[in-house]
Amino acid sequence: MTFPDDETGQVLAEMQAAGINLNEMHNVVFFQLFEQELQAKAMVEHLAEKAPDMIVTLEPDELPNVWDLNCTVTMIPSYEAIVAQEAEFELLAAKFKGFNDGWGIEA
């Protein structure tokens, strides 16, 4: 399987090379960052209502005044699915004054 020559494509290629079967379901974690805990909590509440099956965790970042909101989606991690999900999280996080900060697969 080949992937586009961008950051997402490179990560998927590395995972494939490491022996991860990308045709199976995986827990993919999408990372959102916020400067205000209240804004992050507002997104947590929104997701609890709109996507109750999604695993969502909120914790302080190692940087001061930054909050990490991790959203775990069970999916087949195709390039197209990852890019589409990241775009959705980017728009949603922006509504709560945060931003998407990448993704990873729980190993």
UniProtKB/TrEMBL annotation:
Note the coiled coil stretches, chain numbering.
none
Q: Which domain of life is it from?
A: Bacteria
Residue intervals of the Regulator of ribonuclease activity B domain = 6-104
Give the matching InterPro entries: RraB-like_sf, RraB_dom
Q: A Pfam family name for this chain?
A: RraB
Name of protein? Ribonuclease E inhibitor RraB
